[in-house]
Write a structure and sequence with these properties.
The chain has one domain. The protein has 4 helices and 10 strands; from the N terminus they run αββαβββαββββαβ. The strands form 3 sheets. Strands 4, 5, 6 and 7 form a 4-stranded antiparallel sheet that branches. The longest helix has 26 residues. The structure holds 2-acetamido-2-deoxy-beta-D-glucopyranose. This is DUF5648 domain-containing protein. Keywords: Signal. Pfam families: DUF5648.
């Protein structure tokens, strides 16, 4: 009888410790992710002579700028969401006619500064949602900038990133956000 109470107490303490450990593990490792089935392929098109690049998910829009604005289809960057899902943030699309340039950013301060400069305008229909950190199987989207051509360039390809720097006059501006690799959903 003398030993039963300490034994019960001990098992309670051990049980509690295990429960707290489970909780901590869940809190640390749980990634709340968007549903990959909701992503769409994000195409990149460009006008080589203008060093102009654009990005979109809508095949009708892609076709129309290929037909009307001289763009050519280059690649699929990866996959993005069109609506806000778990852990994603808006990725704004800014466009400049005067500079023949487009860029995307998750930074609202940069968005507002670009609009305030009078050179860029927001295209809400081309806004996507991406991850701000490398979670949920996402991959880095690199941003590069060629100041002589006022050309923003985005890529998920490490070899494209390196060749833009070494042969096309682009500076590395780091990682703009994280998108899903092409081929994770259909
Ligand atoms: C957002 O953009 C502003 C203006 O370009 C810049 O000063 C700031 O460092 C950026 N914030 C982040 C988190 O990158």
């Amino acid at each position: 009888m003398k030993h039963i109470l300490p034994a019960i107490l001990l098992s309670m303490v051990v049980g509690l410790a295990a429960a707290m450990n489970d909780l901590q593990t869940a809190g640390r490792s749980a990634e709340t992710c968007g549903d990959p089935d909701d992503t769409l392929a994000w195409y990149r098109v460009n006008v080589p002579s203008l060093f102009a690049y654009a990005y979109g998910t809508d095949p009708a829009w892609i076709s129309s700028i290929i037909l009307n604005d001289g763009y050519i289809l280059q690649t699929v960057m990866g996959r993005v969401f069109l609506t806000h899902e778990e852990s994603t943030v808006p990725c704004y699309f800014l466009s400049s006619d005067v500079l023949a340039d487009n860029f995307v950013t998750i930074n609202a301060t940069e968005r507002d500064a670009a609009i305030a400069s009078g050179q860029y305008f927001l295209l809400p229909t081309l806004q996507t949602y991406i991850y701000p950190t490398e979670i949920c199987g996402s991959i880095p989207m690199y941003r590069l900038y060629n100041s002589a051509k006022t050309s923003n360039f985005f890529t998920t390809s490490e070899s494209e990133r390196l060749s833009a720097i070494s042969t096309s006059g682009y500076a590395d501006l780091g990682i703009a956000g994280y998108i899903l690799p092409d081929g994770v959903a259909c």
